[in-house]
UniProtKB/TrEMBL annotation:
<comment type="function">
    <text>Histone chaperone that specifically mediates the genome-wide removal of histone H2A.Z/H2AZ1 from the nucleosome: removes H2A.Z/H2AZ1 from its normal sites of deposition, especially from enhancer and insulator regions. Not involved in deposition of H2A.Z/H2AZ1 in the nucleosome. May stabilize the evicted H2A.Z/H2AZ1-H2B dimer, thus shifting the equilibrium towards dissociation and the off-chromatin state. Inhibits activity of protein phosphatase 2A (PP2A). Does not inhibit protein phosphatase 1. May play a role in cerebellar development and synaptogenesis.</text>
</comment>
<dbReference type="GO" id="GO:0005737">
    <property type="term" value="C:cytoplasm"/>
</dbReference>
<dbReference type="GO" id="GO:0042981">
    <property type="term" value="P:regulation of apoptotic process"/>
</dbReference>
<dbReference type="Pfam" id="PF14580">
    <property type="entry name" value="LRR_9"/>
</dbReference>
<feature type="compositionally biased region" description="Acidic residues">
    <location>
        <begin position="200"/>
        <end position="220"/>
    </location>
</feature>
<keyword id="KW-0539">Nucleus</keyword>
<feature type="region of interest" description="Disordered">
    <location>
        <begin position="133"/>
        <end position="220"/>
    </location>
</feature>
<protein>
    <recommendedName>
        <fullName>Acidic leucine-rich nuclear phosphoprotein 32 family member</fullName>
    </recommendedName>
</protein>
<dbReference type="GO" id="GO:0006325">
    <property type="term" value="P:chromatin organization"/>
</dbReference>
<dbReference type="InterPro" id="IPR032675">
    <property type="entry name" value="LRR_dom_sf"/>
</dbReference>
<keyword id="KW-0143">Chaperone</keyword>
<keyword id="KW-0433">Leucine-rich repeat</keyword>
<dbReference type="GO" id="GO:0005634">
    <property type="term" value="C:nucleus"/>
</dbReference>
<dbReference type="InterPro" id="IPR001611">
    <property type="entry name" value="Leu-rich_rpt"/>
</dbReference>
<comment type="function">
    <text>Multifunctional protein that is involved in the regulation of many processes.</text>
</comment>
<keyword id="KW-0963">Cytoplasm</keyword>
<feature type="compositionally biased region" description="Acidic residues">
    <location>
        <begin position="134"/>
        <end position="190"/>
    </location>
</feature>
Amino acid sequence: APSQVTELVLDNCRSSNGEIEGLNDSFKELQFLSMANVELTSLAKLPTLSKLRKLELSDNVISGGLEVLAERCPNLTYLNLSGNKIKDLGTVEALQNLKNLKSLDLFNCEITNLEDYRDSIFELLQQITYLDGFDQEDNEAPDSEDDDDEGDEDDDDDENEAGPPGEYEEEDDEDDGASDLGEGEEEEEVGLSYLMKEEIQDEEDDDDYVEGGDEEEEGK
């Protein structure tokens, strides 16, 4: 029964008229709700979910109306709005009433291009500790179950926060090129292990071809 569900993932479902059919107030125990990439344009029809703590809304087309969240999900601690149409601080101001909010993600939203974006958000939302996975002193948020997802998004974030314009840009682009793969590190590790193997094989081959070596072994 909906009243017993604590986690609900509706990623990639299609919403119609700003709502997902069947998602209603009967999900009273819901603590985690994910609606990524559902073409959600608005939160106006979000049901009241008083126990909800984590809400994933990435890759939708939400541009405002965030005050609904404080009314219907007052206990949110984590909110992901990455990849939405959020452009200005006024839109985000509506999250001030989410008193328990600790972590907010806005990767790939236009707002991240604003000058002093991070400082402004931390000033506006005094209650949050982590913005896009890092606190105000650039300490990374502790690992959570969805760490992999966050890792990939962090790479995107580097683009948004590329260093000063001008001479550094090219370097940043190259760095991003590697990190955008997301698995660049793994590939490098594979590369290294291959090299190690090749070296080991070379050494073995050398032994075979060193005549002296063979004679010694035969002598033994």
